[in-house]
Structures are given as C-alpha cells and as structure tokens.
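Minutes, project check-in
Item: structure for the 429-residue chain
Input as provided by the requester:
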Amino acid sequence: MEGHLVMSKKEREQLKIFVRVKRGELNLKEASELSTVGYRQCRRQYRRWRQLGDRGLVHRSRGRPSNRGHQAAFKGAVLKLYQERYPDFGPTLAAEKLVADGYEVDHETLRGWLLQAGLWRKRRKRAGHRSWRERRAHFGELVQMDGSHHEWFEKRAAGRSCLMKLIDDATSKRIVWLSEQETIFAAMELLWKWIEQYGIPRALYTDKKNVYVVDEKTRKLAAESGEEILTQFGSACKKLGIEIITAHSPQAKGRVERSHGTYQDRLVKELRLNKCNTIVAGNELLAQGYGQQLSDKFAVAPRSAADYHRSAKGYDLAAIFCIEEERTLSADWIVRFQNQYFQLTPPRNMLVGRGPVLVQRYLDGSLHFRQAEQELAYTVLPARPLPAAKPKPGKQRKPGTVPREKYVPSANHPWRRSLLTRDTSLQRS
C-alpha cells in the first residue's frame, strides 16, 4: 500500500539500534554486537539507512521472485503428475518419485505447493510421554523383530498378509520379507536371511507372542519345576547362542514399531507401481534391491565401530531352523509321525530299535530322523504295519526233528459220538 512500509521485527530492532548510533549513544562496533551481524555488514546497513531512510533496512529481495524458485510451468507440471500418479503419496515420498520422473523438487517445497493447492493437509501426531532409551552402541548387539499385518496389496489380493521385519537397534539396518502370517516358519526364515547376510546377532528384542516365547503361565510353571520350556523358535535361538529379550509394550521396541507406518506407506505404493499382486512377486521386488534401498536410506552410523555379529561357520542352519518333535522308536525300527508310519534304516550292529528318535521338519518341508546325533534313512510305509506274531507257549521242538502230522479221528470214532448215542452196553450198570 502506498505510504506504508512493511518491516519485519528484526528490521525494526535494527532501526532502533541505528537511531542510537545516530544520537552518539553507540558506535558501529557496539551496534554490530547488539544486532548479531558482522561489523562490515552493519556498516553497510547503516550507510544505506542514512541514504534511503527506513526503506534502506528492508530486504531488497522482498516482493521479488526467488532466484532459486521454480517457474510456474514447472510447478503446474509437478502438481499435474502428482494428481495422476501419486495422489495419496506424502510429500517426502512423492518428491523422491518425482526425481525419477525428471522433476527435481525439494520435499518441503512440494509440501507447500500441495498445501496451497489443497492436495495435502497437515497431520498432527500426539503421543504420551515416554522415557527415551539410547540406541545400542554396536552393530549386532540388539536386533528388533516384529511382524506387521496389513493389506499390502490393497484390493488386488484377498485378505491381509504379514511383513516380517528385523531392524538393528544401533544402525537401523533392516531386512524385510512378506509372508502369509507371523509364524514360526516366517520368523526362522527371516532370521536365517539376516545371519547369511550379517552373521549371528547377540540378542533379539521381540514381543511376547507365542511364536517367540511361551506364555506367562507356562513360564511360571517351568520356573517352579526348575525346567526350561522353549518354543521352536526359542530353541533354535538357544542353539545359536542368541538371547531373546521380550518387550512389555509396543513402544519399548519403537525402532521396529515406528517403521510399520513407513512401510505401510512406501511399500504399498511401490507394490502398486510395480503391479505386484502376490507375496511371491512382492518378495522378488524386495530381493531385487528395493529392500536394500530402504535399508540404506534409513541406516545410521553406530557409536562404536565394533561388530557384535558372530560367524555362522560350523553351524548347520538347516538343521537348526526346523520344527523338532520327539517320538518313540519301536523294536522293528518303525516311527509314527503325523499319522504316518516310517521304516527307519538301523545303523550297523543294532538289530533291535530302542530309545527315542528326534523328528525334524526342515523349512523346505523335508523330514529327517536323528538318533544320538546320527541321521537315519527312512521309507514311508503305505499302511500301518501288523504286529509280529508271538510264539505260543509250550514245549519247543528240538532242531532237526520232523513235526508229527495232526491226528484226525475217523467218522465213527467214539470221540465223535455223544454219550446219548453210544452203545448202552458200554454204559455202567
């Protein structure tokens, strides 16, 4: 408006300082210290103020387009592409995708454009206060594990599936894998992938699902009896020397819990862009580099350079990551498992089977039978075997003797006649 001058608070404070300099209350050096600008800059501003008046303190770029600003045509093209391809993408993710399309724009600039155009709105996030826990110092010292159930394929596939996740507490490096449910098989398969890539971690941080640990009641009963009861996953971790630490709340393992929202935003849209409609196709996308891309994006440097992972050399991971059950071995080396009968091949110098046998089902579905750490070959029996005939009690025949023929009495033999039909002369008088 003509006759009015708009000044910022900082410029008004600068004007008050220069008035005092003009009156002789301050020199320029003291004025520069009060205004927190350099002496030479303060001298230039004071000279401009004496020449142009209060207008000399107003920033000369005010009201002009920024030298680093984008053209209106560029802004329009970006907003049009956003509405066509990324209508539900957040500003940060949309900015990353626009770079691949040839439109490089900062995510905060894009956020302002979207808010101005009414294509995005601010989202407030309020949560209760919780005490902060510092990250672990070493890579592999603690790895957080959890599953996220979500409609990862939106309406292109029926039902929800689960994204299994392992995130290192010190570095935020991660491995993710899609499965139908958060099962023992899915947890074992994911941990196996982590060990192959990085090594055996020192500890796992999980929730209290029965996939990882037994329930509280069973744990108390085991403590009273002095025995240790483990889940199949817990048993595999014990063989590898991995400690399982359970969290008392989702917020306690916030590193992996907070990442659920990130993946439910980014991965869902990436699966849509790549037209992935099945778990197999989604895992192929993750294996081809997208999973590693997200891991590198959110990874940070640990406080200590030491790696706490141990080498998996010498471990038979296939025999560790499996479902184990103990069965009783019959005398003729037959084992019943899951309503099927298996004929085991006994080792040398063992004619009679005895003791328990360990049945292992590997992640690939194959069965393995072990006794005293020795694996035994087997064949599947088509039906339940008949028990062996037991010898009748009595006197045993000597070796080499010919058995006597069975005596058959004649038709009129007295043995065949009843007492009523026998000759009366034979009866007692």
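Outcome recorded: The radius of gyration is 41 Å.
No further action items on this chain.
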